[in-house]
């Protein structure tokens, strides 16, 4: 650090850092580069599965997050950095030498990205009620005329309740209206739903030869920095990993799905999604996703679950909705003995 001190023009004190980032900092000196700069955050890539997000208070904490006070982010970092800038990490510091920015994490609180896995889930009837009310009551959950309808998977969970609760066949066509979609949007939407259906059916039958092409079909498909198919997969396996310590008979299926998704993601989608899917495989989630999962599984207050769902739905243009549908689908799929 001393050799770089003269180049430092702006020192920023992080307020929160995730456990995974602390391990990265204290393991060894590593080098990365700025991957992208956005309105309230920027991403730094250290390897294919390690994308660290630097964001202000408006950006939810993730398993690989550093929270920066909003004023310092806007005044100290954003005017000075650009994509491709090298970044050095060691000890408790991130240094962006070209911009002269040093981020210190020494006094930051630590964010634990794992939900409360030690607590067993509640009764299935209550979980079902929580999920249905939360996803039904959130504006746009059925994909009608609001911001949330930007998600091609909006309403997917609600349209597959017959399969998830009774083991019925999945519907040949989505039940909700299609008039607000057209052209390429409609094809992407239908393709995502068809491939999600294929994945659920092949997981139910533990048919690994069919699971792999279903996963490959979902990876990288849909809009967003993390495409809709990737968000859905992250939600699905996050639910499976969280439940595997409490629900008998799902461990092999969850581990098999995690293995295939991990293998295929490095060939089939962006490094940002690879990082997210690795976190999901570890049982790590963003603060909004973890709060939704915990409340859906354990709360008897449906209003609380609805509030956590709305916070998750607000993430990104479609990512929060896609992730919520993946989580809700995964919860009922893995907890229902009729599907095993």
How would you summarize what this structure contains?
With 340 residues, the protein is α/β, with parallel strands linked by helices. It has helices at 19-27, 70-77, 124-137, 156-159, 161-166, 184-204, 208-218, 228-243, 251-268, 271-281, 287-298, 302-313, 319-335; strands at 10-13, 16-18, 30-37, 41-47, 50-55, 65-67, 86-90, 93-96, 101-104, 109-111. Helix 9 packs antiparallel against helix 10 (271-281).
3D structure, described in words:
This protein is α/β, with parallel strands linked by helices and 340 residues long. It has two domains: 2-111, no CATH class; 124-339, no CATH class. It has helices at residues 19-27, 70-77, 124-137, 156-159, 161-166, 184-204, 208-218, 228-243, 251-268, 271-281, 287-298, 302-313, 319-335, and strands spanning 10-13, 16-18, 30-37, 41-47, 50-55, 65-67, 86-90, 93-96, 101-104, 109-111. The chain has a ten-stranded mixed sheet, sandwiched between helices. The model is unreliable at 143-148 and 174-181 (pLDDT under 50).
